[in-house]
């Protein structure tokens, strides 16, 4: 498998995660957080999907959202919101 195939597969994987996340699937939303945080370094997008995933009941996303608020990553620092999500 060439590196072009790997890149193409990553792009397809991202595409399908986004489609499923947009349909309301909390785990797919959380997977987008990982993509945006680790891959593209787009913290505002990571925060957006983390918030949606947390609001959908994803426990890991709830904890991560608390951290995002606690340190002001991808959104303004807000200790009250951090406390709520912890």
TrEMBL record:
MF GO annotations: kinase activity
Q: Which UniProt keywords apply?
A: Kinase, Transferase
* The UniProt record lists the keyword Kinase: yes
Check the record and name the SMART domains matching this protein. SEL1
InterPro entries xrefs:
Sel1-like (IPR006597), Sel1_AlgK (IPR050767), TPR-like_helical_dom_sf (IPR011990)
Q: Which domain of life is it from?
A: Eukaryota
Q: Which family does it belong to?
A: Belongs to the sel-1 family.
- This chain belongs to which protein, by name? Kinase-like domain-containing protein
